[in-house]
Design a protein that fits this description.
By secondary structure, this protein is an alpha/beta fold. The chain contains eleven helices and ten strands.
Length: 266
């Protein structure tokens, strides 16, 4: 089976300083992979490199193949065809990802119209927008459609961002710290939603997080990054049960201490 996303020997540098070094990973259709590590470990930069959205100051070498197309060095026209259709991304903070001056309904309609043009289909945009908002379990879609991003909650904004990512029916969903800015209850709801949508739509998932318990709930395999290098990789249950690298051991120990503190709290 050909990999949907294949990263080989990826190195990212800025001003001569390595940010990601010699990273290799592959993700097949329908698979779920977690990319974990502390802030600054290169997780989000790897995600941006995968869809050709690296900042101009960062230089990339190696190889990234997405849907059979080489991303590094590809023209913007080629990359635009990949974004949304082969891979779509949900970012950490939807308030900054959404246009604050545009109503939600219009923002969701734009990628739907793009999909219709791609497929040569005539669709009822209003009906499709409503159906997509219902698919991500947003209550009262009519109200959400007419609202601006600041008029709805953080959890609702993240659901809107997920709906927009799904609009073009991508083969791969990249979720970059999608629950970090949310409270614990809303975080659990978003994880459950992502799990259901990925399963129902048979998408691959690249889930990026620094939170091991979160990752363990939604992926099958993990790659652990420390200062831009992959230090450990394997099935999520095995890595969390018996981490081999000292850095992974420290992450697991910290997560267990946190869980124990929560359980002991009155």
């Amino acid at each position: 089976m050909a990999s949907l996303l294949d990263i080989q020997n990826l190195t990212l540098t800025a001003a001569g300083q390595p940010l990601v070094h010699n990273l290799s990973l592959a993700l097949n259709p329908g698979e779920r992979l977690g990319l974990i590590g502390e802030s600054g470990s290169g997780k989000s930069l790897t995600a941006l490199a995968s869809i050709g959205l690296l900042p101009p100051a960062i230089t990339a070498t190696g190889s990234i193949t997405l849907g059979g197309t080489q991303v590094l060095g590809a023209p913007e026209r080629t990359l635009n065809r990949l974004r949304g259709t082969v891979a779509a991304t949900v970012f950490q903070e939807p308030l900054t990802a959404l246009d604050p001056l545009m109503k939600i309904g219009r923002q969701v309609a734009e990628p739907l119209a793009r999909r219709a043009h791609r497929d040569g289909a005539n669709i009822d945009l209003n009906r499709e927008v409503t159906a997509l908002l219902e698919a991500v379990a947003l209550p009262d879609p009519g109200r959400i459609i007419s609202a601006y991003p600041h008029e709805i909650s953080g959890g609702q904004r993240q659901r809107v961002a997920i709906a927009m990512a799904l609009a073009c029916r991508p083969q791969l969903l990249i979720a970059d710290e999608p629950t970090t800015a949310l409270d614990v209850t809303t975080q659990a709801e978003i994880l459950t939603l992502l799990d259901r949508l990925v399963r129902e739509r048979n998408m691959a998932l690249l889930f990026i997080s620094h939170d091991l318990p979160v990752v363990a709930k939604i992926v099958d395999r993990v790659v652990v990054l420390q200062r831009g290098e992959a230090v450990e990789a394997g099935p999520v249950a095995e890595i969390f049960a018996a981490p081999a690298h000292p850095y992974t051991q420290s992450l697991v120990a910290a997560a267990r201490r946190f869980d124990a503190a929560l359980e002991a709290a009155p």
